[in-house]
Amino acid sequence: AELVNSQFRRAKERIGALDNDLYADLISLYYQNDNIDVDPAIMERLTQKLRLLTIQELKEESLALQEMVVTGGDPDNSLENMCRLLRRIKDFVQSHIPETADTVAENNVTSCDGDLPSPMIPDDFRCPISLELMKDPVIVATGQ
């Protein structure tokens, strides 16, 4: 029994202590009704500790949850609660972290501009001798 206790202590030190504040914040939001306002400090801590600060990170997490629903189903509605929690975090990130909203707006503006880079022309469409773009490329049986 003494050996098991010492091994458990060493394993616990190696893995690191659990973050009790994170656990308490997650549990309180997990079981909380959607109509109740959440303390912004709690949401800020959650977004920082879970590293869900950008829209891309939130999308990746959402896709992972959808994959879990598809593969395993949701027998006890826990995945539905996790999706609801993720939605609340997404709403918080979009409304309270201005850099994220600005970055999304800038990305949308740059993608709508007319200054798109020209597409890369594959080498197969260039003449092997002059390297000019062929007007009517023909591939013969030898592959040239």
Automatic annotation (TrEMBL):
Entry-linked InterPro entries: Ubox_domain, Znf_RING/FYVE/PHD
Listed GO MF terms: ubiquitin-protein transferase activity
U-box domain mapped to chain residues: 120-144
PROSITE patterns reported for this sequence: U_BOX
Keywords: Transferase
GO biological process: protein ubiquitination
Coiled coil: none
Pathway(s) this gene product operates in, as recorded in its UniProt entry: Protein modification; protein ubiquitination
Name of protein: U-box domain-containing protein
The species this protein was found in: Nymphaea colorata (pocket water lily)
Lineage of the species this protein comes from: Eukaryota, Viridiplantae, Streptophyta, Embryophyta, Tracheophyta
